[in-house]
Amino acid sequence: MRIGILGGGQLGRMLALAGYPLGLSFRFLDPSPEACAGQVGELVVGGFLEEGALARFAEGLDLVTYEFENVPVEAVRFLAGRLPIYPPPQALAEAQDRLREKAFMQSLGVPTPPFHPVETLEDLKVGLEATGLPALLKTRRGGYDGKNQILIRREEEAERAFWALGGRGLILEGYVAFDREVALLSVRGQGGEVVFYPLVENRHEGGILRLSLAPAPGVSEALQRKAEDYARRALMALDYTGVLALEFFQVGEELLFNEMAPRVHNSGHWTIEGAETSQFENHLRALLGLPLGSTAPRGRSAMVNLIGVKPNVAQVLALSGAHLHWYGKEVRPGRKVGHITLRRDTWEGLAQDLSHLLALAQAAEPV
Ligand code: AMP
Fold it and tell me: Which residues pair with 213 in a beta bridge?
């Protein structure tokens, strides 16, 4: 089986690395000749809207998936006319737009932070009256890792934020004083079977995911079930196949939906070593109509992103239970270039080395 992946970043790379033991082969489409998945599979270099590149990419594939959600929906529709494509294009369309995804989840009865579409300054004024301050103004599209959003603390800041974000296509959200951020990764197979990983606790810095703890400590059975119930509604409504990631704000025992990603996700990288079956393998199993693998955690895991730094490899690997994933990307400030998972049987065993690991993950080494 030859699988086509739209996008050639680290998610595509890790999908391929999980798929080789299953006897699969991979082709990527990416506008950059440097795309790091090209180191582990065939890379077609071309824009997502270039018909010639799309046709070369599609030639001889058995099915198509994607590894980042800002693939133009037109490209997905073009391919969908020729090949099976999973997850469904509608999921991509919802996830590309912060307003649509929140309205979609709200329509399924899933709680969200208060939100308002903003196309004019008047909309912003009305929205702020409803949300109160502080509030977050975000672009509906294109933002990721905390980009394209501005915190409005005082009314006088609103107009500047509006223009700084382009003055249209915006969403205003009430600021949620959450206890923590958690994510749920779910997988739905072609026959409709569904499995869930345990909730993960995510810690961000500057809007970028820095650390995941999995399973999230202190999650009640009821909270896990609530997250699964919310995810199941989305999976059913979209007739979904593959991995779906949902991010929530936890406030007490409540979960407010923040974002969805219709793909494998950074919050699931820990599953490579920390779960019986990784998110990458389960995504492929789902696409191929194969039985889904167990999502049971193996002990406790902490996943630390490497952001703009190359750590000392020997020092990292000297920590028992540490696993390095280097993506083969050029190191640049603010860029995710790898991650490390520290896996142990218990949190007690992990906590001490985690602070050491976090220090190593900050320490740049000349490259
Ligand atoms: P986003 O790209 O929309 O997920 O936002 C990036 C990060 O900003 C989130 O992971 C949160 O840490 C923070 N954030 C986003 N929306 C809100 C909100 N409504 N209230 C509080 N924090 C938020």
Answer: 201, 302
Determine whether domain 114-174 maps to CATH 3.30.1490.20: yes
Q: Which two tokens stand for residue 4?
A: 């086509």
Q: Which residues line ligand 1 (CB under 6 A)?
A: 113, 136, 138, 143, 146, 149, 173, 175-176, 181, 204, 207, 258-259
The CATH code that applies to domain 180-362 is: 3.30.470.20
As a whole number of angstroms, the distance between CA 359 and CA 57 comes to 42
pLDDT given for residue 144 in this prediction: 58
| Among the listed residues 199, 180, 289, the one whose alpha carbon sits nearest the alpha carbon of residue 245 | 199
- As its CATH architecture, domain 2-85 has 3-Layer(aba) Sandwich (3.40)
DSSP-H helix ranges across the chain: 10-19, 51-58, 73-80, 89-95, 98-107, 121-131, 158-164, 221-237, 271-274, 279-288, 313-317, 347-362
CB 217 within 8 A of CB 347: yes
Beta bridge partners of 307: 336
pLDDT digits (tens, 9 = 90+) for 235-268: 999 999 999 999 999 999 999 999 999 999 999 9
- Residues 307 and 301 sit within 8 Å (Cβ to Cβ): no
Pairing of strands 42-45, 135-139: unpaired
CA of 278 to the centre of ligand 1 (A): 26
- Cα-to-centroid distance, 133 and ligand 1 (Å): 15
Mean pLDDT of 309-334: 95
Q: Where are the domains of the chain?
A: 2-85, 114-174, 180-362
- C-alpha 93/C-alpha 71 separation (Å) is 10
At residue 352 the predicted structure's pLDDT band, cuts being 50, 70 and 90, is confident
Q: Is 340 helix (H, G, I), strand (E, B) or coil?
A: strand
Predicted confidence at residue 367, as pLDDT, reads 45
